[in-house]
Structure formats: structure tokens, C-alpha cells
Amino acid sequence: MSMNGLLPVLAASAAIYFCLCSEWATLVDGQSGSGSAETPSSGWGSGAPGTSVGAPASIPLNASDSPPLVGSMPAVNGTPAAAVSSTSAAVGSSSIDPTSSRLRHQDILVHWDAAPPQSHNSIEYKVKVSIENRNPYAGVSKTDGWELGFTWDHDEFIWTCDGCEATTKPDCSNLVQIYGMGNISLAHTCDRNPILVDIDKNRNGSLTSPLLNPGGAIAELSLSIGKKMGDNIYPPSNFSIAARGFVCDVPRQSSSSSSSSSSSSSWTIACGPPALTAEDLEPSSVRQRRTCCVSFSAVFNRTLAPCRSCACSLTSRICTAPSSPCDPSSFSSSQPAMDAALGKSQKDYSIPSMSKNQEKGRCETGCGRQIHFHVGNVAEDRDGIGPDRGGWTLQVRIENFENSVVEDWMLAARFDRQVTDATAVSPSSSGSVNFTVTRRDLEEQFLAFFGKQGNEFLRQKGAITFEVDVNATMILAGMLGVPAEIIHPEKKLTENETYAVRADQKAFPTQVLFMGEECDVPHPMYVPSLPNHSPTPVTFSANRAATISFALLSSLIASLLHLP
């Protein structure tokens, strides 16, 4: 071939090569999460992890550095729960205006249902109060038990109290003068700012998760209220709940929370964690609020995805180089949950490489709890159903470093729907751990794990380990829309089916909550995957096409070099 004939071919091949290389780089860049930052995840696990602005190129910060802004409650036992975010329309059966500048999200609802007095001249009316925990992934423990406080604004007082008692019972002489009734001194409390506590010593102010025990998630009280003759019925103000540092919003008119109630005056008071300030949105503040971090490992990939340094606190001073500031882009120097889960096999694994500066900035996580997920026992022929259809075991370890016991512990992990549908607690753990699935209508769902009776406490300085099995045949059956038992063991799988049923990145959760609080999880680019497999399958193999073009280009150049 002459030089004039080769040059157009050479130019065309070079153009194809560089275009394909550019496209491939874009795909890889998108898969590794190194592009622009995603929208911060919502509360209650309604957002998948993304990336954060300002992350070092070598080890990006986790997406969860962007804090939850608003969120909606996941469905409970397959039924969509009422939305409880600042974007929701209603809470339960009430018609309250959910817009609130005080709350990050609404965990507890106080329903105040006042029955009409017997007559306009009556000086007494009845109130039914219910305190309802709406957080499916965390209860209120006995240690943090509810204490309902409020302020009377129109000289009301509590005649009688059923299901609770007031912590203070001051002198009622000032009300005796107002009402002109000497027997007011017999009232349960005349305190203008009463605080009511649970009288059930077994519950002691605790509220269970509505997932675990819907009945135990509600406390009900009955009050008899004294008021001045002719006065209207008003709700108290300045409500407080004293559980887990929550604050309460103002009372809002609502419909009665009881279908059998003849109440004509009802209010709902929402309580939850305080709303975030501009300062709270800073990454360092987000970490300061976290209590847990997550690490991953898998038998099919010997590179770990550890908890990162200062995942929960930038003030952690147990560091590789105490004089150096903590570098959140490095991996933590202490991984107890991962070490315990891997045991002797830990020597077969390694952490991703770090720069010298990152090595200097390695510190402990500062987290009170660490949670490790390990994909192991990948079976190629479990239950005799053919290669690549066996499934895998997910081993979970929760390590508690705090000096306090975690009552009614609950771990919620978000997986691909195909995985949640095929998950069951393994026989070795079925006696101590149970689970349930929420948000059945979404492509990603939460598996909520909790201890059975006798195993519901996570001891101080203690740990819990359990296993779940994922049945790949059930995943395949779900894909095909057929019963698992009719899948023929000799059926050849398509490429998509093979990808769907094998243990890979989808075997790990994309979001983890412990006791309702979001944990710091590894960035997607560090989640263990099968060798030579990118997290997002590419329909057009751009890297392969680029390789072919490069080979063609090399051949042409070689031909040029041998021209006469």
C-alpha cells in the first residue's frame, strides 16, 4: 500500500481510538463516583450514597458526609407509613401542617384529644393522650424513657392522672383563690409546668419500634383537667418529650387519633431531633453527630473496604502520628469489628493503598459502634441447582465500644430488592436474630435485623455476630417471574441472569442505619467486587473496542515502518 493510501486509514483509526478512549474514561469516571457531587441523601434512608465535594482524588469522602435534610418514613410491614418529613402532607390520621423549622424529622407524635365538657359551665374535661413512636428503626429505651412536659397558659391544672404521674406536686393555694374552691388542694398536680412520667415500671417510659411491636410503640394516658368556668378548651404549650434529646413543635389542630373518640378538640404535637443549622451542614459537624461506621469484605476480593479515619469525630486523637491532623480520606488505624469478623483469615486481605500524607493522618474512627459485613461461603452449586446459582452467606458483626447497653438493638441495611427477596437468617443464627423487610414497593429495600427475646441487648463493650443466607435461585426466579421450584438446574443462564445471581457489589448494603442513625459507609469505588468487573455493567464494551482500534492502529504504524 502506498503512503497516500495509508494516511486516511491511519487518521480514521486514530480518531476512532481516541473517541472510544474518551468515552471509556467517561464511563469509568461515572462508575467510580468521581464526578460531581450527588444530592445529599434523605433522612430515613431514602437516598442512595453519592459522593462529596472536596474529596481527595485517591480516597473520596463518603456521600454520607452530606447530612440528611428531609426524609420520609419507610413502609412498615409492607404498608406505606405516613410521611413524616417537612415535605409530607399529613401525619397519621391528623391534618397537622407538617412544616416545621424546629425538627429534622418527626420521630414521636403526641396526640392530645380533649373531650367536650358536659356543659358550658363545667370546670372539668377529659383528655386522652397517646405518645407514638413513628421511627421504624429505633425505639425509646427505658434509659431514655419519655417524660412529657408542657405549660398551662390559662390556669388549668390536672385533677387526676391515669397511666402516668407528675414529678412535682406544688402548693395549690394560688388556684384556690382563682377558682374559689378549697378542694383544688386534692388535685393530682397544680404545677403550671408539669412533667408526666410512666408509672408502668416494666416499661419505664420505653417505646418499641413499630416494626418490632406496634402495640409497644404507643403509650396511652388519661387526664382529667380543671379549667375556669366558661373558658374554652386550649392545648398546653411548650411541649417536651425528654427522649433522646428530642425537641417538640407547636401543637397543631388535627382530627382525633381515636376512631371511637367523641373529642371535639384535638391537637398533634410532633417531636424529633432538632433541625439542622448551616453549621450542622459542614462535613465536620455531620461526622460529629454520627455514632457508627461500616466496613466490607468478601471472599472473592482480597482488598478490604474499611471504616475511615474520624468517621464519627474529627477530634479522635488516637492517631498514627499524633502531631498530624486527622485525614478523613484515610482508612482508620483501628478496625475491631472487621478484625473479629475475619479472624485468622485477615492475613489474606489488605487495605487499599494510601499516600504518605494519608498514612500520617490515620486515626481511629471516633465511632461508638462499628459494623462489618463479610460475604463468604459463595456456593456454586448449593441445593443442586447448577453453577452460579447457589447463593452466598452474609456475615454481620456489630461491635459496641460504649459503656452503655443498647436495648432492643436494631440494624437496618438497604439492599437491592432481588437480594432482600432472597434473604433468610441462616440456621446458625435463627435462634437469636430475626428480620423483616420494609419498603416493598421500591427497587431498593431495607432489611431490619433485631435480636429475639434474650438477645435483644447489645452489651457494653460487647458484640453480636449473625449470618444471613441469600438464595440465588430465588433471585433468578424473581427475575423470570416464576416459582423458584420450577427453575430447571440445566437451564443455561443469559449474561444478565448470570450477573444478577452472583455475589458481587449488590451483596453489600448501600446504606446502613443502627438504632435509626445513619452510619458512615465505604465509598462505592471501594466496595468489593469480582475481578475485572465494574460496578455498573456497560452494554457497549468501549474498552474492548478501544483495544481493537489500538491494535489496528499499531498494525498500520508497523506497516508504515516497512514501506519501501
From TrEMBL:
Annotated Polar residues bias: 30-43
GO biological process, alphabetically ordered: cellulose microfibril organization
Protein keywords: Cell membrane, Glycoprotein, Membrane, Signal
Domain of life from the UniProt record: Eukaryota
Major location category of this protein: membrane
Signal peptide bounds: 1-30
GO CC terms: plasma membrane
Region (Disordered): 30-60
Localization, UniProt: Cell membrane
Alphabetized InterPro entries for the sequence: COB_C (IPR056900), COBRA_pln (IPR006918)
Record domain COBRA C-terminal: where: 291-523
Protein family per UniProt: Belongs to the COBRA family.
Full protein name: COBRA C-terminal domain-containing protein
Gene source species: Chara braunii
The organism's taxonomic lineage, starting at the top: Eukaryota, Viridiplantae, Streptophyta, Charophyceae, Charales
